[in-house]
Amino acid sequence: MADGGLVARPVGDVRVVIATHRSAADVARAIASALAQGLHPSQVTVVDNASPDGTVAAVRAAAPGVRLLAAPTNLGFARACNRGAAAAGGGALLLLNPDAVLQPGSLAAMLAALDADPRRGAISPRIDRPDGRLDAACRRTFPSPVIAFYRLSGLSRLFPHSPRLAAYNRTHLPVDAPGPIDSGSGACLLLRRSAWDAVGGFDERYFMYGEDLDLCWRLAAAGWTTWYEPGARVVHRKGASSEQAAVPMLVAFHQSMWRFYRTHYARGGAALLAPLVGAAILARAAALVALNLVRRHPRVSP
User: Per-domain residue ranges for the chain?
Assistant: First the structure.
């Protein structure tokens, strides 16, 4: 029994969607970690975004029973996940990055958290980097202009225990404390199918990045909550495919940042700040692109 007296749904009700691009080195581990949760290969759908590196062959070798949808062009993360979700069915949808590995018992913990409260539309697990550091994107507050300023200016890093300055990544809170959050990470997110369908899945105008924040925003607007469940653990290598094309992904990241702001915050009096916010985002993107041009190992995260 899950908390609240509700019976946790069986893993047979879950469908996993993995969107891949240049993921041949990682995807087999992600699939294996999903199957180790008690899932059958037929419950896993992989949508490959025209990978040139043998990702499709790697998927077929890892688990022949996995549903594989090979797109002729790179659809982007949001479109690929939507396509996979539409094909997969199921009462619960687990989005999993190809460089993310579910730890033992994590799916059961997420399902129990989902079914503990019928208002929960999404469950975000604790996501760690391979070196043990928390991937802070797994428990976020919506980036209002003020909160985004604290994050992008570095104040949140200088004062990680401040509830105000560190609000975006909630670093002032214990990592093992479950609770409601504004947004989880698309690297691993369990969604109630009815909630996903109610908001129409990802907004496909986001090619890469920001689509998870936007999804959780629309879930909240529709009356659903997002819950952080640290009893479920995932190890995420992060950037395995995007950093193979770091400069285009940096551009996509900042385009998504601008789209999110323009969609959800540039209204009323706040619209007067839009030119200033847009200029700041453009300047940040230009600086990071320039920095990547001189780095030995380009990366998307600053």
Answer: 3-140+182-240, 142-172, 243-294
* Superfamily of domain 3-140+182-240, CATH level 4: Spore Coat Polysaccharide Biosynthesis Protein SpsA; Chain A (3.90.550.10)
pLDDT digits (tens, 9 = 90+) for 189-241: 999 999 999 999 999 999 988 999 999 999 999 999 999 999 999 999 976 55
Report how far Cα 159 is from the mean position of its chain's Cα atoms: 25
For 265-301, write each residue's pLDDT tens digit.
877 766 777 777 777 777 776 777 777 676 665 555 5
